[in-house]
């Protein structure tokens, strides 16, 4: 790396990386080659090292929406790229008073908290992916997993709000998920989910001490209906998930082929595998009734375990070295790349050969076409659309850029080095992702390295540090570290989406098919109330519905009366239609706090179990007289 490189001056990447000597030698050659084709030294230099500006000046907008998983929080976060500014948090499996998620009637319905069944109040989000068509994002939905309580959630992009959550039967540790990358005419649109932990099937007290009888399931969820379509019984623990670009396969990396229950047992074998699922062959079998069910679930299950009749028909097990983690398909759709975790290699699998292997024309092990050595602890791989792959290297704390075609030539015995460049990251990187990397429109501009450790990079805040999401310019031949972004643990993964694809609405509109309004319309009809324009208290026995408008700076009702023991539903409509004018409804000493977006209606149901006077007030600074925006709930004894 040249002394003129500004990165050197900032001291963030001091010249030679630990393994940089090798690429430095090559760098000279490339600058030379640039000059040879008539480039001025400056231009050649610009091609050599990325030179994108990450500055987004005041008043300007980011080029990309980043969808980050929130990890422990159970949410999704939206980060502007390249500014790395946090723009929004979308509550999914968690509670949130900004919107009232988990508190309002609608959100309780989506979360399943309205029913008298077991209630989950925590989640663990890892993988966010957007819905696709023709190999790129179609701007309709985002999907995210809940590893804690085996669920899949969907977020509608028009409001960036969770609109459906489905539980996956017999699964634990729902980890990798991936939607189909294209929609096939007349066929359902599936999102595939891997269960990482094996458990007894059904998990009702049987087979407790007989791990050989435990199982793990690969689940297909209809991403439009948000219903579980079918499941496949698989050998080993499934980790990450991916799909091809033709709509034929889903795939999973599998570790613990030993099917052990403690670490030493789980890592005994030198090889584990990547499993490929023949989606429409499974679909056919299910249609023909060639399936079984587990316990009292009605979901069709087929057996795709090793040595079962389904192996070769439903599933294909391609051996890869020791405990693979990530699996990613390159933007050409040809190659699936598995990262070794306990092996310093990536394994490149040719999906055209996988197609042939399902037809019995080649052996599963012959689908492997390259195995470059990328560093210690490779986890995830992303792409720039120019034939290069970028793999996160956990143990080395580096990102390795390597060339896929060269890796294939090297595997065939040619004396070529596929490694292009390595850059240090700080520290212990998990996922990386790059702009549009998971689509055929990968544009090779920015890469984000989601580092698990940050130790000395930020002001210390106690024993628990923030994560460090680093922004890296990948537009040149060599990578350039641009920005350290602190982020509260632990976003596992992200996708970075061109901004023209995401078209959210700035106010809520009464669409005929908006499920949020369906509930209110039904109630208002029953009660003969004009929703959004009338302020009325309707009593039916011990059930009271309070319809209330809000328009800055007043609520339509400055008081309402109920009796102790009533079940009260307060329905508030925000009649401000201007951008940004949200109201909130917080009911003192009743543990109720939710927001109402412009144009929206929200409601809450509770038992008025305490007599007295309780002030409700607006929680959004909506007007100069915002503090006066309040009223009294009077509960008669
Ligand atoms: Cu942390 Cu994708 Cu859950 Cu890898 S996963 S690092
Ligand atoms: Cu409405 Cu403050």
How would you characterize this protein structure?
With 637 residues, this protein is mainly β. Among the domains are: 45 residues, no CATH class; 121 residues, Immunoglobulin-like, CATH 2.60.40. It is built from nine helices and 39 strands. The strands form nine sheets. The chain has a five-stranded mixed beta sheet with strand order 8-9-10-11-15, covered by helices on one side. Strands 30, 31, 32, 34 and 37 form a five-stranded mixed beta sheet that branches. It has a five-stranded mixed beta sheet with strand order 33-39-38-35-36, with no helix packed on it. Strand 5 and strand 6 form a beta hairpin. Helix 2 runs antiparallel to helix 3. The chain is globular. The N terminus is likely disordered. Dinuclear copper ion binds next to loops.
Which class of secondary structure composition applies to the elements?
Answer: mainly beta
What's the CATH superfamily of the domain at 516-636, by name?
Answer: Cupredoxins -  blue copper proteins
Q: Give the % helix.
A: 10-25%
End-to-end Cα distance, whole Å, is 78 Å
Q: What's the level 1 CATH class of the domain at 516-636?
A: Mainly Beta
Bound molecules: sulfanyl-(tricuprio-$l^{4}-sulfanyl)copper, dinuclear copper ion
CATH architecture of the domain at 516-636: Sandwich
Q: Unreliable segments (pLDDT under 50, ≥5 consecutive)?
A: 1-36
DSSP strand (E) fraction?
35-45%
Number of helices: 9
């Amino acid at each position: 790396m040249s002394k003129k490189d500004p990165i050197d001056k900032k001291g963030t990447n001091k010249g030679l990386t630990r393994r940089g000597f090798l690429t430095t030698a090559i760098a000279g050659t490339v600058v030379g080659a640039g000059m040879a084709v008539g480039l001025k030294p400056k231009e050649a230099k610009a091609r050599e090292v990325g030179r994108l500006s990450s500055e987004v000046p005041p008043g300007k907008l980011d080029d990309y929406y980043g969808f980050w998983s929130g990890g422990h929080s159970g949410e999704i976060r939206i980060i502007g790229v390249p500014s790395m500014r946090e723009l929004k948090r979308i509550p999914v499996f968690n509670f949130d008073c900004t919107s009232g998620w988990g508190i309002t009637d609608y959100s309780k319905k989506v979360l399943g908290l309205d029913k008298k069944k077991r209630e989950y109040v925590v989640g663990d989000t890892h993988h966010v992916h957007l819905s696709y068509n023709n190999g790129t994002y179609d701007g309709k939905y985002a999907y995210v997993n809940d590893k804690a309580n085996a669920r899949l959630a969907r977020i509608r992009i028009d409001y960036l709000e969770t609109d459906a959550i489905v539980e996956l039967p017999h699964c634990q540790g729902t980890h990798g998920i991936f939607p189909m990358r294209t929609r096939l005419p007349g066929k359902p649109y599936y999102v595939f989910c891997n269960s990482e932990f094996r458990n007894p099937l059904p998990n009702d007290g049987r087979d407790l001490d007989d791990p050989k009888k435990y199982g793990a399931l690969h689940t297909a969820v209809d991403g439009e209906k948000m219903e579980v379509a079918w499941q496949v019984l698989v050998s080993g623990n499934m980790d990450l998930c991916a799909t091809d670009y033709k709509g034929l396969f889903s795939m999973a990396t599998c570790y613990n082929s030993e099917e052990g229950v403690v670490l030493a047992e789980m890592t005994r074998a030198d090889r584990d595998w990547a499993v490929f699922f023949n989606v429409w062959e499974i679909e056919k079998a299910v249609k023909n009734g060639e399936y079984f069910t587990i316990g009292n679930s009605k979901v069709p299950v087929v057996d795709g375990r090793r040595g079962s009749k389904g192996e070769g028909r439903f599933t294909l097990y391609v051996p890869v070295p020791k405990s693979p983690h990530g699996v990613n398909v390159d933007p050409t759709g040809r190659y699936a790349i598995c990262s070794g975790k306990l092996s310093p290699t990536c394994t490149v699998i040719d999906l055209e050969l996988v197609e042939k292997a399902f037809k019995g024309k080649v052996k599963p092990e012959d689908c492997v076409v390259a195995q470059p050595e990328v560093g210690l602890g490779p986890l995830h791989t992303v792409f720039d659309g120019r034939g290069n792959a970028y793999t996160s290297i956990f143990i080395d704390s580096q990102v390795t850029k390597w060339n896929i075609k060269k890796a294939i030539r090297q595997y065939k015995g040619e004396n070529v080095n596929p490694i292009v460049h390595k850059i240090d990251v700080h520290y212990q990187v998990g996922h990386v992702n790059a702009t549009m990397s998971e689509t055929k429109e990968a544009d090779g501009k920015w890469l984000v390295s989601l580092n698990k450790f940050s130790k000395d990079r930020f002001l210390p805040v106690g024993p628990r540090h923030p994560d460090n999401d680093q922004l890296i310019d990948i537009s040149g031949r060599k990578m350039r570290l641009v920005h350290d972004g602190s982020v509260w643990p632990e976003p596992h993964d992200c996708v970075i989406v061109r901004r023209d694809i995401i078209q959210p609405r700035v106010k809520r509109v009464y669409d005929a098919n908006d499920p949020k309004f369906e509930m209110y319309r039904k109630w208002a009809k029953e009660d003969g109330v004009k929703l959004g324009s009338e302020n009325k208290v309707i009593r039916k026995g011990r059930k009271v519905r309070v319809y209330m408008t809000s328009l800055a700076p007043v609520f339509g009702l400055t008081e309402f009366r109920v009796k102790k023991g009533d079940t009260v539903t307060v329905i508030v409509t925000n009649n401000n239609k201007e951008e940004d004018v949200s109201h909130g409804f917080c009911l003192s000493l009743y543990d109720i706090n939710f927001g109402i977006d412009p144009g929206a209606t929200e409601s809450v149901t509770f038992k008025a179990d305490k007599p007295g006077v309780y002030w409700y007030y607006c929680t959004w600074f909506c007007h100069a007289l915002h503090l006066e925006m309040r009223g009294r709930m009077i509960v008669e004894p």
